[in-house]
């Protein structure tokens, strides 16, 4: 055959979709995975449509998840995430996808990869190999399958579904340089246009850097499409992201930082104010604690990456951070209401009052398996690499 076939499931997790593969069905040599994954999703595609693959033309739809047996005793499964470029064929394994994390427990349960009750609530402990962290996923099950119908609504997804409660345990220090890799709650960066900005660089669920929107001539209420076409703003945010990457010791230089598309995440934050979401719903200021507009793999996210929201929650728990400065007075750090382009998302971080450590970050998501089958890749696309 002129194509190879790999068993796969196509699953929505939160506000993302991905091909979910099992480790046993992939080549043993992981060096071959990037070319395979890019071909599966139809990258590179300068037309931003990925028509010759399973991708959807934007970062939240250009993802691969790999599930396998756990390699550590405190987890039930291993989960590896790959962010695939759209315009190019880059494949980045440096960070996790929190949205797709919500689908990993139910998938493993349905596939019989883990044990659990036939009815009631299942608990699957997920070892994310990208971050080296464990995520506890709790979700309802019925007749031996993960339930998908429920009454939880999440911004960016039409309708409702069964809740998956995700608790990211010991979420900070995923890259090995501490919760605050620079040692500072706030750092000052100088951009190429002479602009000086204050940022908070934090590694909580995913390495991230936050800047107040006004300092980069941005607006935390802006439609993502307007952010994407504002090249001056996007260039400033990318410059911040790359400088932060070096300062956080994620990459040795700016060139390497530009090539590492998934981390750190960069986001503009702002104080609560009235805004209209992508569905045309107006959210009043008193229904929010702060606002965020996050860039993911070079594009303004249409909602917010879950790991980015959790990093925001971790930063909000740190006195004096750029994020904490934007939070409405009287807000609860364990139930922060974040204004995103798709609506309000609630996240929280749990702080140990004795040590000051962030012990967990949590969020609710929904998920649903959309299709099972095989994904096909032309052999010629693999032989070209």
Automatic annotation (TrEMBL):
Q: Does the keyword Isomerase apply?
A: yes
Tell me one GO molecular function of this protein: methylitaconate delta-isomerase activity
User: What enzyme class is recorded for this protein?
Assistant: isomerase
Keyword line: Isomerase
List, alphabetically, the InterPro entries matched: PrpF-like
Enzyme Commission code(s) on record: 5.3.3.6
Which PANTHER family does UniProt cross-reference here?
A: ACONITATE ISOMERASE-RELATED, DUF453 DOMAIN PROTEIN (AFU_ORTHOLOGUE AFUA_6G00360)
In the record, the note on similarity to other proteins reads:
Belongs to the PrpF family.
Q: What is this protein called?
A: 3-methylitaconate isomerase
UniProt source species: Pseudooceanicola marinus
């Amino acid at each position: 055959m002129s194509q190879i076939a790999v068993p796969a499931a196509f699953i929505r997790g939160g506000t993302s979709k991905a091909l979910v593969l099992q480790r046993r069905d992939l080549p043993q040599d992981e060096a071959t995975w990037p070319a395979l994954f890019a071909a599966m999703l139809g990258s590179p595609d300068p037309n931003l449509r990925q028509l010759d693959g399973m991708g959807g033309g934007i970062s939240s739809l250009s993802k691969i998840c790999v599930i396998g047996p756990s390699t550590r005793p405190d987890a039930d499964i291993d989960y590896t995430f790959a962010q695939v470029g759209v315009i190019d064929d880059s494949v980045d394994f440096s960070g996790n996808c929190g949205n797709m994390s919500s689908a990993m427990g139910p998938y493993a349960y349905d596939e019989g990869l883990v044990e659990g009750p036939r009815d009631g609530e299942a608990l699957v402990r997920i070892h994310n190999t990208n971050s080296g962290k464990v995520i506890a996923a709790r979700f309802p099950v019925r007749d031996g399958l993960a339930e998908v119908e429920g009454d939880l609504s999440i911004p960016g997804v039409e309708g409702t579904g069964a809740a998956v409660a995700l608790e990211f345990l010991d979420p900070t220090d995923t890259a090995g340089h501490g919760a605050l890799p620079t040692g500072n709650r706030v750092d000052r960066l100088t951009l190429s246009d002479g602009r000086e900005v204050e940022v908070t660089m934090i590694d909580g669920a995913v390495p991230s850097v936050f800047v107040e929107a006004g300092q980069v001539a941005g607006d935390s209420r802006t439609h993502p499409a307007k952010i994407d076409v504002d090249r001056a703003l996007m260039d400033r945010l990318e410059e911040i992201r790359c400088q932060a990457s070096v300062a956080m010791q994620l990459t040795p230089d700016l060139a390497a930082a530009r090539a590492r598309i998934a981390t750190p995440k960069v986001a503009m934050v702002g104080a609560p104010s009235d805004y209209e979401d992508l569905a045309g719903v107006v959210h009043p200021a008193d229904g929010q604690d702060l606002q965020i507009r996050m860039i993911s793999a070079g594009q303004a996210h249409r909602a917010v990456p879950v790991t980015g929201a959790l990093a925001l929650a971790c930063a909000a728990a740190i006195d004096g951070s750029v994020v904490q400065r934007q939070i409405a007075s009287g807000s609860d750090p364990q139930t922060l209401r974040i204004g995103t382009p798709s609506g309000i998302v609630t996240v929280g971080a749990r702080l140990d009052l004795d040590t000051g450590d962030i012990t967990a970050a949590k969020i609710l998501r929904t998920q649903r398996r959309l299709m099972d089958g095989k994904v096909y890749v032309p052999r010629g696309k693999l032989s070209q690499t």
